[in-house]
Structure formats: structure tokens, C-alpha cells
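Example record used in the benchmark description.
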Amino acid sequence: MLPKPTVLPPEKPTEQQPDIAEQIARMREIAPIIAEYLLVLNSTAFKGNRYSAAIENNQLTLVRNSDGIQVMKASYTLEEWQPVEPPQLGDEDITQLQKLIPVIQQLKKKQKKVSLPKIELE
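Model output (C-alpha cells):
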């Protein structure tokens, strides 16, 4: 007689594996930061020490450089960010990417200072 197969309960999300609702919330927090950074850089892509990001065909992708994993692919539709593929953003990703906020603010200040004065022609 064969032993009964053991049925394991479904895994609960852990710190390393948040559930999909948590992942979508993380994506909606981070996607606007990345998009704003690209906008301030006046670019469709950037490659930093930890992350690379690009926006193409209205889709924003974010790759963690250390392991090459695409941690986010999202599109901006109906006035909010939607996942194109399931996000894989960890706590460390969120912490690191939030550090872009003061960088963006500094870049915006510099752009205002560098902007040329308006010249009116008669």
C-alpha cells in the first residue's frame, strides 16, 4: 500500500516574498519616482550602480544590476501605474529607490537656476 501524499499548506508571503497586492503597492510607490527621474534627466533610460531603468512604448522597466532581475515592468494607464508583469520589489529595492527623491528635487532646483531668462523682442 502506498503512503498518502503529504499536502503542504500554501506558503504565506514572507518578508522575501510579499503577496501580489503588496507588490502592486510597492510598484505604485516606485514607478512614479523612476518616471520622474527619467523626466528630470530628459532621457528614456538610465543605468546606475544598482539599477537600470527604461521607458519604451509607454512601459517602464526596472532591472536590478547586481543579479540582472527585472524587478518591475509597468505601464501608466487610466491615470495609474499597472503591472505588465508581476513586480518583484524587495524591501531593499524600495529603500534604495526612495533615495532618488532628494536627487530629483536637487536636479529640479538646478534646472530652475540654469534656465535662461525670457527675452522679449520688440
